[in-house]
Design a protein that fits this description.
Blueprint: E1 5-9, H1 10-25, E2 30-34, H2 42-50, E3 55-58, H3 61-69, E4 76-78, H4 87-93, E5 96-99, H5 102-115, E6 119-125, H6 139-148, E7 152-159, H7 171-188, E8 194-196, H8 203-206, E9 217-220, H9 222-225, E10 228-229, E11 234-235, E12 244-257, E13 280-286, E14 298-299, E15 305-309, E16 314-317, E17 330-335, H10 337-345, E18 350-354, H11 363-367
Parallel strand pairs: 1-18, 2-3, 2-9, 3-4, 4-5, 5-6, 6-7, 7-8
Antiparallel strand pairs: 1-12, 10-11, 12-13, 12-17, 13-16, 14-17, 15-16
The structure holds pyridoxal-5'-phosphate.
Amino acid sequence: MSAPRLLIDLEKLHHNALTLVQRLAVDSISVTGVTKAALGAPEIGKVLLRAGVESLAGSRIENLESMCRGGVPASRTLIRSPVLSQVDRVVAHADVSFNTELDTISALSLAADRAGRTHGLILMVELGDLREGIMPNDLEAAARQVLHLPNIALKGIGTNLACRSGVSPDTNNMAVLSSLADSIEASCGTMLDIVSGGNSANIQWALSGTDTGRINNLRLGESILLGREPLQCQAIDGLHTDGITLVAEVIETKVKPSHPWGEIAQAAFGEPLPSIDRGDIRKTIFAIGHQDTDHYGLLAPQGIKILGASSDHLIVDSSRYHENLTVGSEVTFGLNYSALLRAMTSPFVAKVMMKSSTPRLPAETVQSCRA
Ligand SMILES: *Cc1c(COP(=O)(O)O)cnc(C)c1O
């Protein structure tokens, strides 16, 4: 089989999604399955639906379109603000989109009219992470304007934390979102079906036994695909962290000095990393690089130490690996979100969907996250 390849264990992803859907249902929180790191792969979308997610979401319209083409029978949500030049595609392939700009919402209204449809809308609120969102004080005015637009249905409000600045979801900011939902309903005389509290970073908060208030939806990607919550990069109890793994192939393995020699200038990707002279080591090169993954986010099996990468080469110290690697040997790596996203996006990495639960990574590989 060709390498590099991502091994995607659909049964493990199903288990992760089902477990989260069931745990959150206790607090009446529905799950929107986010397949953006999987580029909207229809096979994964179908598995998440089978596990009970309420709808599927992606951040780019292309990914929602590929779920459409793949015959995934789901309600589809676009979770990044629509690109103004793509509003017709958004109306055609997303039932709901997340928005913060009235210019875009007006264009969606016109596009929905042209298509003879009603487009659902979630207004995103800024609660401190400083990525997308309407400032809380401006939310009510925005909601009023949206309610006047034809072919647009205001479905609810949402927020997104812990993505840009690492602001954690907590009792305070979640209570602010709940009270914004209450005040908009009271002042605008409308019901908000969805109060979407956030992403995988909200799981600890949601499952902590705290009062979840009006929050009745979370949008989950990483926690389903990798079994981890992103705040502390911890494995979530009872979930598989090796539902997706990456297999790479050896193209060179030699005993070489650990230290470079010659005049040192810039390397291909900026400053060369400082290296300590440890004498000769077994250096092994895998045919995978920056163009395929984020090597800082790869979790190597015990005995393999990642030394660095360039566009097409991953260089490791395999001196302590239990197996004698030769040219053509394959090694399975775990991934963090960044490594997964890039590998999924690389046309050079094959994606292999499996129904069985074959290669399990050794426990020590899957527990930790990134260096
Ligand atoms: C990416 C994203 C998510 C999903 O985040 P995970 O950490 O993968 O669960 C949810 N909401 C928005 C707006 C996003 O951009």
